[in-house]
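Intended use. Records like the one below are meant for learning the mapping from a protein sequence to its folded structure. Do not use them to infer anything beyond what is encoded.
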Amino acid sequence: MSGTRTDDGSIAAVDVAALIAKYRARNAVIGVIGLGYVGLPLARTAAEHGFTALGFDIDQTKVEMLNAGRSYLHHIRDEIVAGLRDAGRLSATADFARLAEVDAIILCVPTPLTRQREPDLSFIVKTTEAIAPHLRLGHLVVLESTTYPGTTREVMQPILERGGLRSGRDFFLAYSPEREDPGNAVFATGDIPKVVGGDGPEALSLAQALYDGVVSSTVPVTSLEAAEAVKLTENIFRSVNIALVNELKVVFEAMGIDVWEVIEAAKSKPFGYMPFYPGPGLGGHCIPIDPFYLTWKAREFNIATRFIELAGEVNTAMPQRVVEKTMAALSEHAGLALKGARILILGLAYKKNVNDTRESPAFTIMEQLEKRGAKLSFHDPYFDAIPRTREHAQFAGRPATPLTAPALAEIDAAIICTDHDEVDYRLLVEHCRLVIDTRNVCARRGLLAVNVVKA
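Structure written out for the chain above:
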């Protein structure tokens, strides 16, 4: 039992046991702030498991689409959104005053880096400030955005407590790192265990009760900071291992060895090895960004994160290597210089089979090619035109090139940046003069030809 003093000095109690029972009975209303690649799947999953989900977003277009029963994410179909809307389980709003209607408030907002490669917590801060005026007794507030250990306690908690309510007594604060993998056909939101840390045992119990009703299982940890560290550990693990295979690719290529063949053979070992694959660079909101959150925080303790920073250097260098391989292949196979060459970028998304371009290495490759005088076009089955991005706004609006035999005949080289399944790679190989394959997709499909160069 928790509580706070009212104006007459009495204690207004928060019945934690009753709140837990409400979550277990799925009678609670779940508010999800930020309806992007993390927030919308979470709201959808909560609604599918019997909760009422109310989404909040400052993007009025998203709000209107969801309330009209339409989805803006490729991997969530319109009929799913429409069905949940019609059942009264899912709706959206831009009005933060409606936070008074919800029992739990879950933040799924971006945590990018600044131009100086330092954490940008502006979205967390602004969202928390928007929540604070509407905070009430019994509210459970959960941060899911990836960040450095200490953010929930040191940044969010003071803002939420400005009005006099106290964490662990009047409202309850928790952290549960998102583990969303857009386009994953095996593990959807509800199939992935949820790590949960709380500001005190009651906050942890409430957060567990909530997520137990949404996902396959919960994994409690002892503190907010431990939960925050889990997400960074997961993504740093991936970043370091991807950097390792990217470096091995360079080394083995110099020795005349195909790194893809080596990885395929190595992964036959049933223990002590986990396959990671090289590529044109890191993309997505997590792996290119999250490691630097820990690097920044480690400086506070005078600790150098050498592994993390070295991995970042290796992975950041990969787009440049793709450009260099393209230059060499054009010269060797076509007798052409990069300046003036007609280059088709195949795939803008950072990973296959999604319409997500966040931090995609394709844009860095395009930028470097264009600086060297190449004439660029692109094709991606998920985009009719290049969407606007923060870092590469100069490309926004350029129309896609159709993947047809006549169009490919006009191209000097195509660079496969993303190995979408919805691409006719045979057509590409048969009609394009030169194919630079950064994903080994041609070999995987048996399309071995002299005009295919691995990069």
